[in-house]
Amino acid sequence: MVYERLLSARKKTVGAKQTLKAIERGQAKAVFLAQNADRFVTEPILRLSTAKGVPVIQVDSMLALGKACHIDVGCAAAAITEE
């Protein structure tokens, strides 16, 4: 399952803004992006991740990503900051 790594992470960011900040600071080890999220939200994260060499994992839905992050709503992006 693609979410196992996210579920077992010691620290993570949840949401587009926090994920973008973690990538900018060099803290993100891996980034998860929901494919059904708006492109204007995910595109800056994808570009910065690629530029910084952070692996990007595409997941199917915002709702499933939110559940993997232990929140009750959908989530466009998340990042692992500590394994």
Automatic annotation (TrEMBL):
Pfam family of the protein (one): Ribosomal_L7Ae
Residue stretches in coiled coil: none
Domain Ribosomal protein eL8/eL30/eS12/Gadd45 as annotated: residue spans: 7-82
Highest taxon, organism lineage: Bacteria
SUPFAM superfamilies per record: L30e-like (SSF55315)
Record InterPro entries: Ribosomal_eL30-like_sf, Ribosomal_eL8/eL30/eS12/Gad45
UniProt protein name: Ribosome-associated protein L7Ae-like protein
UniProt lineage: Bacteria, Bacillati, Bacillota, Clostridia, Eubacteriales
Gene (UniProt): rplGB
